[in-house]
Design brief:
Number of strands: 4
Radius of gyration: 23 Å
Oligomer: single chain
Structural class: alpha+beta
Order of helices and strands: EEEEHHH
Strand order of the largest sheet: 1-2-3-4
Length: about 100
């Protein structure tokens, strides 16, 4: 269970089934008894993570000097191969050519 402000969100996990998360719980009950019930609030949707190309473009947009691959990799928190592949695809999109590895 996770508390988000005044709401409680329940996550269900089972080894043989996909997990369910974001079920909103509400405190309810009657006759001097309290119980948790599934609430009306919709589950919170998380934005998908940015693509490698978007990460690189964001870093480059916020710098005003040349950046080495190592600096770009550290700023984007990506592996060198993923940085190089994303840069290669970006260059190919602008020039119309596709670079190939030996």
């Amino acid at each position: 269970m996770i508390a988000r402000g005044e709401r409680l969100l329940l996550s269900i996990e089972h080894r043989a089934a996909p997990s369910q998360s974001g079920l909103s719980l509400a405190l309810g009950g009657g006759n001097d008894a309290l119980a948790l019930a599934i609430g009306d609030a919709p589950p919170v949707r998380h934005a998908p993570p940015p693509s490698p190309r978007n990460k690189i473009e964001d870093v480059l947009a916020h710098t005003n000097q040349p950046v080495t691959v190592a600096e770009l990799r550290q700023a984007c928190r990506m592996r060198t191969t993923h940085v190089c592949q994303a840069c290669s695809r970006s260059r190919a999109a602008f020039t119309g050519f596709e670079s190939r590895s030996p």
